[in-house]
Amino acid sequence: MHWRRQIRRGTNSPDIVAQCLSRHLGVPIERRMLVRARATDPQADLSPQKRIENVRGAFRLGANYDLGGVRVLLVDDIMTTGATCSEAANVLRKAGAEAVFAAVVARTLGPDAAA
Asked: Taken in order 73, 77, 80, 85, is the CA torsion positive or negative?
């Protein structure tokens, strides 16, 4: 999450989830491995294509990380189209991550999904 958005929200829900997973799985949290290269617009009202465009180039690898052969678990609170996770995973794979997995608290359904 970009620092400006965290200040506006007052909390970082994915970080809270990551802390719980870290304790439960016994793995460290690497908060600086993937960093925002730029702020992005809120995605709630964007179409799937606009979401992809919105996050393109929004992430970069943090300084001093060698991901050769490393498996990474991305943590997020809500996944709608997967654009954010996909963009983040692409950056990590290009940096040498062996595998990238995503853990999300909630997955929204499209407008055609049955209730």
From this structure: negative
What domains are defined for the chain? 3-107 (3.40.50)
Distances (CA, A) of 28 to 23, 55, 76, 81: 8, 26, 16, 27
Q: Which CA distances in Å does 38 have to 4, 33, 55, 84, 106?
A: 10, 15, 9, 13, 25
* Amino acid of residue 36: R
Q: What is the pTM of this model?
A: 0.81
Picking from 10, 65, 74, the residue whose alpha carbon sits closest to that of residue 32 is 65
Q: Phi, psi at residue 21, to the nearest 5°?
A: -65, -40
User: What would the pLDDT profile of 60-71 be if each residue is shown by its tens digit?
Assistant: 999 999 999 999
Q: How many helices and strands in the chain, by DSSP H and E?
A: 4, 4
Distance CA 30, CA 82 (A): 21
